[in-house]
Amino acid sequence: MSKPRIGVIISSTRDSRFADKPAQWLMDKVKDHPDLEFDLIDLRDQNLPFFNEAASNLWMPSSDPNAVAWQEKLAGFDGFVFVVAEYNRSITGALKNALDQAYKEWNRKPFSALAYGSMGGARALEHLRLIGIELQMVPLRNAVHIGAGDFFKVSPLGSDAPMSEIEGNLEGSLNAMLDELSWWAKTLQTARG
């Protein structure tokens, strides 16, 4: 079998988002991963309408061509890493909408996150894990959290330092996440046939 393909989904679409900085750091760290292939997916580029279908695509085909294109894109991946911004203790509205626009394409695929915010995006990731369970995904235990002093060191809300200044604090959790993601992605890729 080929290397499992992992979609790295940037979940914030705001003009002033911080997500690009940690997403680029992550993509630099995984570009030569021996077991997984990573592709960056920016929700800004997906042109997704607000969910307005008669039902989930589990029950009937979606009618909106942009939703169908999104579903086709997701179908080509074996797992996901979400770049999770915490907005008011949860995920972004754009990410919730993107999750709702598909169903079958999320099933039996592992996911983790690179989460950020003053609390490390922990509350948003908790919500994302609950949504993932309903979508029949496999939420992983390990994730990368950028919070507290590290967040304010690299965020424009603070010192706006380069990610290299905090990566020593993140590499242990990144390696644990990638090991777990690799195992689950390979296992579930084989099981899906």
UniProtKB/TrEMBL annotation:
Residues 4-147 form the NADPH-dependent FMN reductase-like domain. Coiled coil: none annotated. Transmembrane segments: none annotated. InterPro entries: Flavoprotein-like_sf, FMN_Rdtase-like_dom, NAD(P)H-dep_reductase. Pfam families: FMN_red (PF03358). This is FMN reductase. The lineage of its organism: Bacteria, Pseudomonadati, Pseudomonadota, Alphaproteobacteria, Rhodobacterales.
